[in-house]
From TrEMBL:
Family in the record: Belongs to the TACO1 family. YeeN subfamily.
Organism lineage string: Bacteria, Bacillati, Bacillota, Bacilli, Bacillales
One GO BP annotation of this record: regulation of DNA-templated transcription
Record HAMAP family: Transcrip_reg_TACO1, Transcrip_reg_TACO1_YeeN
Gene3D superfamilies for this protein: 1.10.10.200, 3.30.70.980
Name recorded for this polypeptide: Probable transcriptional regulatory protein CYL18_07225
Protein's organism: Pradoshia eiseniae
Length: 239
C-alpha cells in the first residue's frame, strides 16, 4: 500500500513531541471516549482503542488519568465530532477530523488553513469516497509469514500483511480492530508501533517539489489547529 506507516508515525510523533500538542489532543479524545461510555476501557471499546493509540505515542499516564478522572467527575464540557473534506495543490485530497466545543470557530479555522495555503474546503462526501476506513497495526520482531499464521490461528480476516522496513504492518477492516489486537495479544504481543483506525487513500499521488512544499505547509497549518485530531490525505510524501 506504499504508506510506510512507521516512518509516517515517527515523523509525526517527533514533530508533536516538540510542542506536546499531541498530549492535549489525546487528552481531549480520551475524555470524550470516557464521557460517551463507561470510563473503564474493559467495558468501553472506544476508550480502549484510544488508549491503545495513546500508548504507541508514549502519552504520559498522568495525561490519561486526568482525562478519565475528568469524565468520571461529571464534567459538563462537551465536544462535537466533525469531519471536513477538502483539496490541496495538484489534485491532493484531505480529510480532517476534529473535536470541538465551538463548531463555528473550528469550521472557520479549518477553512482558513486550507484557503491560505493553496487549498479549498469541499462539501461532505467530496473526498471521502476516495478513502477507505482501515485498521492498521504495526509490530516488530516478526515477519509477515509469522503474523499471517497468528491471524489464521485466531480466525481473523485481514486485508493485507506487509513488511515495511523492520516492521510488519497489518491492514484490516475497521470492525476487525479488536480481533486483530486480541490475536496479537494471544500470541504474546502487547507492544505496537502503530495501532489505530485511519482513512487510507485508495490511490496515492506524488507532487512536484513546489506543490509538495505548499501541501506540507497546508497540512502543518491544519494539524496545528487546536480542535483538529486527525488529518488524512492521498499524497506520498516519500521517506
Amino acid at each position: 500500500m506504499g504508506r510506510k506507516w512507521n516512518n509516517i508515525k515517527e515523523k509525526k510523533a517527533a514533530k508533536d513531541k516538540n510542542t506536546s500538542r499531541i498530549y492535549a489532543k489525546f487528552g481531549r479524545e480520551i475524555y470524550v471516549a470516557a464521557k460517551q461510555g463507561e470510563p473503564n476501557p474493559e467495558s468501553n471499546q472506544a476508550l480502549k482503542m484510544v488508549l491503545e493509540r495513546a500508548k504507541t505515542y508514549s502519552v504520559p499516564k498522568h495525561i490519561i488519568d486526568r482525562a478519565i478522572e475528568k469524565a468520571k467527575g461529571g464534567s459538563e464540557e462537551s465536544y462535537d465530532e466533525l469531519r471536513y473534506e477538502g483539496f490541496g495543490p495538484s489534485g491532493s485530497m484531505v480529510i480532517v477530523d476534529a473535536l470541538t466545543n465551538n463548531v463555528n470557530r473550528t469550521a472557520s479555522d479549518v477553512r482558513a488553513a486550507f484557503g491560505k495555503n493553496g487549498g479549498n474546503m469541499g462539501v461532505s462526501g467530496s473526498v471521502s469516497y476516495m478513502f477507505d476506513a482501515t485498521a492498521v497495526f504495526g509490530i516488530e520482531g516478526k515477519n509477515a509469514d509469522e503474523v499471517l499464521e497468528m491471524m489464521m490461528e485466531a480466525d481473523v480476516d485481514v486485508r493485507d500483511i506487509l513488511e515495511e522496513d523492520e516492521a510488519v504492518i497489518v491492514y484490516a477492516e475497521p470492525d476487525q480492530f479488536h480481533a486483530v489486537q486480541e490475536a496479537f495479544k494471544n500470541a504474546g504481543i502487547t507492544e505496537f508501533t502503530v495501532a489505530e483506525l485511519t482513512m487510507l487513500a485508495q490511490n496515492d499521488i506524488t507532487l512536484d517539489a513546489e506543490a509538495q512544499a505548499q501541501f506540507e505547509k497546508m497540512i502543518d497549518a491544519i494539524e496545528d489547529l487546536e480542535d483538529v485530531q486527525q488529518v488524512y490525505h492521498n499524497v506520498d510524501l516519500g521517506e
